[in-house]
# Entry
Amino acid sequence: MSLKHPIPLIALLLLAAGCAKLENVGKVPPLSLTQDSDEYNAMASPGLPRQVEHMRSTDTASLWSAGRRSLLGDRRAVQRGDILTVVIEIDDKAEISNSTARTRKGSEKAGLPNLLGIPQRINEKLPDGATMDNAFESHSTSTFSGDGSVRRKEKLTLRVAATIIGVLPNGVLAIQGSQEVRVNFEIRELLVTGYVRPEDISRQNQITYDKIASARISYGGRGQISDVQQPRYGQQAADILLPF
# Structure
């Protein structure tokens, strides 16, 4: 197909995209596979085991053990493949209001009533009512006003289990978590990635989102409701291509 006539080509691409969507009619949106994901690979191939000192014979008789699985052991996530809970509690509110007003007024007037009698001679040759006494006069007025306001309020409370997918050389933990919930024909998905310090993880093996560096939090959905809320492909293409 010649590129000199792009309209049929665009229509063909839009039709192909629409036909791809027709395959999902009457079907629930599929859940993402957990195998071969970064979280699965981190748990399937954990990091190298840490060196453990040999237990003395006297320690075996103790009622208390320092191991992670003991009653008082530290069960916080510390190595690749461990799981921790990310608590997301966002309650932000911002309100900005700006107002600008400007007024400017100017007036100028110039004339040439006397200059060696020259204006009088020129006045004789001018039409009736014209004179050199007020040769130039101007007035200008400028008024500007602007108002702007921004009001935003966000509230989100979520909890998701994340997996340590890597340990950086400085001890910082790279985490990644995902969660999908399907209700009828709609999937709500939550994705969390970032970097945390081991000392910021609480004794309950939890960490809040504000302690995650380079945090990337995505909460959205896909399915019938999300599709209805999006403009059609033709409308999106028209918004991009049409100059007006």
User: Anything to note?
Assistant: The CA atoms of residues 29 and 223 lie 6 Å apart. The two ends are 28 Å apart (CA to CA). The longest helix spans residues 6-22. The chain has two domains: 38-46+68-93+153-241, 97-149.
